[in-house]
Amino acid sequence: MTELTTQEKDSIREDIAKMKTTLTGDLFQDMDIQQKIYELKVQLNPKIVENPQLDDEECLSCGS
User: Fold this and answer.
1) In the chain, what's the furthest Cα-to-Cα distance?
2) What is the pLDDT of residues 19-60, one digit of tens each?
3) What contacts 27, CB < 8 A, 6 or more positions away?
4) 3-state SS record for 1-64
5) Contact (Cβ atoms closer than 8 angstroms) between residue 1 and residue 18
6) 62 lies in a domain?
7) Statement: the pTM of the whole predicted model exceeds 0.85
8) What domain range is 42 assigned to?
């Protein structure tokens, strides 16, 4: 896997921020958006797949 450029990382972070503004707080309604956010975060930091605690936000896997 090739390293992302700074521009690519910034673009992914912008996409995540935009998606977060659409979250409603309803777990079931937000599920697809949360999954897309997670997939983008994995692009930024693939290590969070095996170590969710490395994510800078709350753990989506355990729901805490």
Assistant:
1) 36
2) 999 999 999 999 999 999 999 999 999 999 998 888 877 555
3) none
4) CCCCCHHHHHHHHHHHHHHHCCCCCCHHHHHHHHHHHHHHHHHHCHHHHCCHHHCCCCCCCCCC
5) no
6) no
7) no
8) 6-54
